[in-house]
Design goal:
Blueprint: H1 10-27, H2 32-54, H3 70-79, E1 119-120, E2 124-126, E3 129-131, E4 134-135, H4 141-160, H5 168-181, H6 188-202, H7 209-213, E5 217-224, E6 227-232, E7 235-239, H8 246-259, E8 270-275, E9 278-283, E10 291-296
């Protein structure tokens, strides 16, 4: 009987070639770098094995809920006599419902009067900040547009005739005419609101009116448009009243200069004036930021 060896197929031949390549690599002399890598792999594998043996899964904590009075109720229930199923009432136990929360109080409504005074509560000191709760009508963007147009027109007429400032009917007519030009509908309450803000900014001091009118504020220090501090009852405190931008602060100072008939500009940035019981020192700088100090006499 003769044994015949069949030639390998392509797949077997490819596998034999791969084995021969591996044998060639294994027969090569071991270099120092390879010896170092072999030692590192052995130590690393041993460390992983030891770490796996020493690891123990921590038991998961059991969730417990502490209910006050539970133990006492449990003891009382255990003392009660046993009740058979026939003695159990068929009616379902009624679970007491939680009381219905009272409705949230509505925000206080501000009645619009001819003068429309703002309501200012007593300031409260919180975390070193003196906070004022000022209640007054809300102005929308369209309202401020009307306000700016009327204010600028009204200022020009005040310069020609200062007595116009005391005539509320004249101011109301100015607001009506501006609304008609801009095709904005208006009501009596709307006219009163715009009149209130015109008087507040032209006759008063705008945003810092609460600080001016508070008798416990002796000094007002504005370091920047969003940093206004006061000397309140002998203590220097920051307030929650501030200007929205440098431009609003600059307009405030220009308004004071107009009232006191003083010049204030880039060429003449210093303002020092005693006006309506106030000593005002201001520095006008639209680029770097304006600042002022007001001391009550």
């Amino acid at each position: 009987m003769t044994i015949q060896f069949l030639p390998p197929n392509p797949e077997q031949k490819e596998a034999l070639d791969e084995l021969e390549k591996l044998l060639e690599v294994l027969n090569k002399p071991v270099s120092k770098e390879l010896k170092h890598n072999i030692k590192f792999v052995r130590k690393f594998t041993k460390s992983l094995f030891l770490a796996g043996r020493s690891y123990r899964e921590m038991p998961k904590p059991k969730l417990t809920h502490e209910i006050r009075g539970f133990e006492q109720e449990k003891m009382e229930i255990s003392k009660m006599p046993e009740i058979s199923k026939n003695q159990i009432p068929s009616q379902k136990m009624q679970i007491p419902q939680a009381p219905i929360a009272p409705p949230a109080p509505q925000a206080a409504k501000i009645e619009l009067t001819q003068e429309l005074p703002s309501q200012i509560s007593q300031p409260v000191k919180e975390n070193g900040i003196l906070k004022f709760n000022v209640l007054e009508p809300i102005m929308e963007s369209a309202d401020w547009k009307i306000f700016n147009i009327v204010k600028n027109n009204f200022k020009q007429k005040i310069l020609l005739n200062p007595e116009v400032l005391q005539n509320n009917d004249f101011l109301t007519e100015e607001i009506k005419n501006t609304c008609k030009e801009l095709k904005i509908k208006y009501s009596e309450s709307y006219l009163q609101k715009i009149t209130y803000y015109i008087n507040k900014y032209l006759k008063g001091y705008g945003k810092i009116d609460p600080l001016i009118n508070n008798p416990n504020v002796a000094e007002i220090i504005c370091n920047s448009y969003n940093d206004i501090r006061v000397n309140y009852q002998g203590e220097l405190l920051k307030t929650d009243i501030y200007f929205e931008s440098n431009e609003e602060l600059d307009n405030f100072l220009l308004n004071i200069a107009e009232k006191s008939k003083k010049e204030l500009s880039d060429k003449n940035p210093q303002l020092s004036v005693s006006f309506m019981g106030l000593n005002i020192e201001a520095f006008y700088n639209p680029i770097m930021g304006s600042r002022f100090t007001i001391r009550k006499q």
